[in-house]
Amino acid sequence: MNPNEWDNCFLLHQRAYGETSIIADIFTRSSGKISIIARGAKKPKSKFFGYLAPFCKLKVTYSGRSELKTLTNIDRDFSMSVDNFSKTSYSLLYINELLTKLLPKNATHEELFDLYESFLDEVKSNDLELTLRSFELDMLEMLGYGIDFESDIDEHNPIEANAYYKFISQRGFRKSERGELLGQEILDIRDRKFESIPRKSLKKITKEAILLCLDGKELASREIFRSLKG
């Protein structure tokens, strides 16, 4: 990237580096997920101070040929912000952690970037849980982990609207009289029509699909949720 060219991005994760600097993972529109160092960003007089905030659209310039880039300029859209102690922000932390773990570095994902930006806007006014489920399914599909909602896993026949199916982790849907979902509900999930879908069943599908993608890695955000509920 040209060091003088601005790039839109979102902060996914940050950590302290030394006494005054910050290393951050950011999701950029043009380069995908990259790591940057913001030198002196913890100093109140720094031009970076207070700008590296999650859930806000940022504009940055950066330089360097190594994997760790150097932040050179930053600007921020202050209209996009979330209450740090709201239920919504904890859910967004979960999404940020997913992106941090699942996105490969330095691989452009403009479609997913646009989806994430839309998600941050929609989650403010729409049903939080259903908006999360929709994002999870779209994200999995864009990253190549999409679920087959079109056919069963045994005979590869089209999903029948009036038949019952059971979701088999890592594989898809199996026709079964003891299944928890009607075929029509599976087709509705495919079309992101969640209104009549049991939320417990919908969450089970996305949770199991994401666990497979994480390959056994734990999510710190889930531990936060457990401690809050406890």
Write up this protein.
With 230 residues, this protein is of the alpha+beta class. The protein has a domain at 7-76: OB fold (Dihydrolipoamide Acetyltransferase, E2P). It is 34% helix and 23% strand. The protein has helices spanning 87-102, 110-122, 128-142, 183-190, 199-214, 220-229; strands at 7-17, 21-28, 32-38, 58-63, 68-76, 164-168, 172-175, 181-182. The protein has a 5-stranded mixed beta barrel. The longest helix is centred in the middle third of the chain and has 16 residues, at 87-102. It is elongated, with a radius of gyration of 20 Å. The mean pLDDT is 89.
Please specify the SSE layout and strand pairing.
Layout: E1 7-17, E2 21-28, E3 32-38, E4 58-63, E5 68-76, H1 87-102, H2 110-122, H3 128-142, E6 164-168, E7 172-175, E8 181-182, H4 183-190, H5 199-214, H6 220-229
Parallel strand pairs: 3-5
Antiparallel strand pairs: 1-2, 1-4, 2-3, 4-5, 6-7, 6-8
Helix pairs in contact: 1-6, 2-3, 3-5
Give me some keywords for this one:
230 residues, alpha+beta, OB fold (Dihydrolipoamide Acetyltransferase, E2P), five-stranded mixed beta barrel, three-stranded antiparallel β-sheet, 6 helices, elongated
Q: Which CATH class of one domain is shown? A: Mainly Beta
Mean pLDDT metric: 89
Low-pLDDT residue intervals, each spanning 5 or more residues = none
Helix content: 25-40%
CA gyration radius, whole angstroms: 20 Å
Count of separate DSSP helical elements: 6
Given helix and strand content, the structural type is alpha+beta
Strand content: 15-25%
Strand order of the largest sheet: 1-2-3-5-4
